[in-house]
Write a structure and sequence with these properties.
This protein is mainly α and 177 residues long. It is built from six helices and no strands. Its main location: other.
Length: 177
């Protein structure tokens, strides 16, 4: 009897004695069967292949689920990126609108200051001075465009008649040749 049985180890695990005995029995069995199973190597390999195929299919399914989850995460990140881009555009629009309103306020304040300092009577006076200067310029231009000396004696109508006669003579002479 083994010392292991006395202690009660046999109930928990096999004792070293039975393990040695099992090893000798395995050497005696055929090479085509697995010890204690009663299956041949080819049958066992088929069973093992089926088991591995099932395990592989499960792992492939896990990988597909992982890929789907990552694709969802990538899509979500893409949507977040688009939202951030939209927010940036909205902030730029708000900034330009604020700058425009500030410029309008500044322009309005400058216009008010100018109008406050100016008087409507001063404007009318300035407009009258401009009109007077314009009238004086017209008179000067008319004086400069009037003929002076011998050119003033010629009548415009008689000059045009003389030119017309010379033209008709030139045409008549040219046609005869």
């Amino acid at each position: 009897m083994c010392c292991c049985n006395q202690v009660g180890v046999a109930f928990v695990r096999r004792c070293h004695c039975t393990m040695r005995a099992r090893k000798h029995e395995t050497n005696k069995e055929s090479k085509h069967t697995l010890p204690g199973w009663g299956f041949g190597n080819s049958e066992m390999l088929e069973i093992r292949e089926q088991f591995l195929r099932k395990k592989m299919a499960a792992e492939v399914e896990k990988a597909k689920e992982f890929t789907r989850a990552n694709n969802k995460r990538v899509d979500r990140l893409g949507n977040y990126q688009l939202q951030i881009h939209d927010q940036i555009i909205l902030l730029e629009v708000a900034k330009s609108t604020t700058e425009t309103v500030d410029a309008l306020r500044t322009g309005t304040a400058a216009t008010k200051a100018i109008l406050k300092d100016s008087n409507i009577d001063d404007m009318y006076k300035t407009m009258d001075e401009i009109n007077e200067q314009t009238q004086e310029m017209k008179q000067i231009q008319e004086a400069l465009s009037a003929p002076v000396g011998a050119a003033a004696d010629f009548d415009e109508v008689s000059i045009l008649r003389t030119i017309s006669i010379f033209f008709l003579i030139a045409v008549f002479l040219h046609v005869d040749k």
